[in-house]
Amino acid sequence: MNPIRERIRKYFRGRRASKPREGRPKAAATRDVIRIPQTADFSLKTCPPHVGPPIRVRYWPAYTNPYQQLFYGFASEHFEAQPGDATAALADLVDHPDKRICFHLHWLNFLYEAARKGDGNAPFDRLLEASLTVRERGAVIAWTIHNAVEHEAVDKNFEVNFRRQLAQIADVIVVHGKQAELLATSMFNAPPHKIINIPHGSYIGVYRDEIERDIARKRVKAPVRDTIFANVGAMRPYKGLSELITSILEMDRSGGSVGLLLAGRAQPAYADEIANMSGGSAAVRIDLGRIHDDEMQLYLNSADFLVLPYRSILTSGSAILGLSFGRPVVAPALGGLVDVIEDGVNGFLYDPASPGGLATALKRAASTDAQTRARMSQAAFAHATTLRWSDGRNIFIQAIANGR
Fold this sequence. Notes:
Blueprint: H1 3-13, E1 55-60, H2 67-72, E2 79-83, H3 86-95, E3 100-105, H4 109-119, H5 122-136, E4 140-144, H6 156-169, E5 172-175, H7 178-186, E6 195-197, H8 213-220, E7 227-232, H9 241-253, E8 258-264, H10 268-278, E9 284-288, H11 296-302, E10 305-307, H12 317-324, E11 329-332, H13 337-340, E12 347-350, H14 357-366, H15 370-385, H16 389-401
Parallel strand pairs: 1-2, 1-3, 3-4, 4-5, 5-6, 7-8, 7-10, 8-9, 10-11, 11-12
Helix pairs in contact: 1-5, 3-5, 5-6, 8-11, 9-10, 9-14, 12-15
């Protein structure tokens, strides 16, 4: 028997009888995919063809987040990627014997949602078994480590052990940034030769960016203040929004001319929590609901700074989004944030373990003069221009070509 398979079975054999976790219902593993502008960096013409058979990737799960479409780019005779699970990858091995098949895993949250619903540990077993089967039949297994563990993790030890097993199965492990690379080796025991550290591309050109600040602020009814901080995207407790609201309200009560824009979806209970925290203050504007693509520029162009007060984070697409709009980012010195944010240059970093660290960083930002803010905005956008999806895509293609 395959030694990796035996280790997996030995570990999970004692887990199957455990009591299932309760929680949210299982979400669909494949969702509708949005259209992405045909930017130059999205094209495979920027990637030289590799030597060897054409590559066909099946990636799971598929998200509406533009990350995956930007990561894979347009299809060509050398490389193509489509959503699909392990079953689809197995079918590709039969239907496309002339191609190198890759099964590429991304986020693992669907497994945890299924477990909390009542499926116990079966989803984890099935994924590992299916990945091993696909690998044994000749496909390359790739895994992108987006998170250290799931946000609001219930059983961290279980999650770490599961990821360690997955790291042994994978032929190619994708990380974004030095901190993620260190975590892969130290926490998940990932063999260094499997890891490829590639840049997380920018979102320049993905969303419209043509409305000037004053008009944007009127459109979203931003607080009338000298400094506007913003946080956009799904609102969840791990993002530290309660600490952010508290800090803004304290600055407002102390006479600081600061305002906060919060926009995104939230579970009803959490939406009520943050609304109650704001207390109806004119310094805080909360827009609940999905942010449509054409609305993204309204919130980001209204802001002087994007604030991401994560309690825990590894890779942050939101930070890259902020830089792509030329917004300096205020964030804790955690995970991959230290790879993209340079304190005092394109944002402000703070020690999350330091009491009042977030408040101090917000005060630093608010006290920054107009000329320095302009330089920081330019530096933010300049850094985003260096983050090319095509660079990472080329590294990924070569790794898959050499992965077995």
